[in-house]
């Protein structure tokens, strides 16, 4: 654990499952920003606040969001499948399919955010944004309530440590 600017403990790579929960919180925060951005554009048009919000969303989902999916797909999911637990295998199959849907939703949304960031558009397609937000909300709810609690019971200490090391390496952090 590390302390954030407010002095509260934030998860660190030695607690990778908690880091995944925390990443979900940040995804929800970015989704809220996207929802507010769509509404802001309708009222205010594209202004500096819009560009800043679009830039923040792009930065998050182009980096941390991608790392999050990689953490799961390259490390966590294979560990769960290797456990031999049938329920885990079913969850992984579902979540991999959802990742494809979320990636497609991002590919639809991303160019619109770039246009907002660059001042080339005054609106984002509300249906595309809503699809992206709702998809992540459902996905995160399932992961938080079902998959991550199961992972906590299936992974041994060495696997948890390896998961944290791989997550750190993916971000260029040495432990």
- The CATH class designation is Mainly Alpha
> Helicity range of the residues?
over 70%
Low-confidence stretches: none
Biggest β-sheet strands, sense, barrel = 2 strands, antiparallel
Mean of residue pLDDT values: 94
- Structural class designation: mainly alpha
Q: How many separate structural domains?
A: 1
At CATH level 2, the architecture is Up-down Bundle
Distance between the termini: 13 Å
Amount of beta strand:
under 5%
Q: Give me the count of strands.
A: 2
CATH superfamily: nmb1532 protein domain like
CATH topology descriptor: Four Helix Bundle (Hemerythrin (Met), subunit A)
Identify the strand order in the major beta sheet: 1-2
Q: Topology as H/E string?
A: EEHHHHHH
The Rg value, from CA coordinates, equals 17 Å
Total DSSP helices? 6
Instruction: Please tell me what the overall shape is.
Output: elongated
Layout of strands and helices, then pairs:
Elements: E1 2-3, E2 9-10, H1 16-44, H2 48-62, H3 64-82, H4 86-117, H5 126-154, H6 157-170
Antiparallel strand pairs: 1-2
Helix pairs in contact: 1-2, 1-5, 2-4, 3-4, 3-6, 4-5
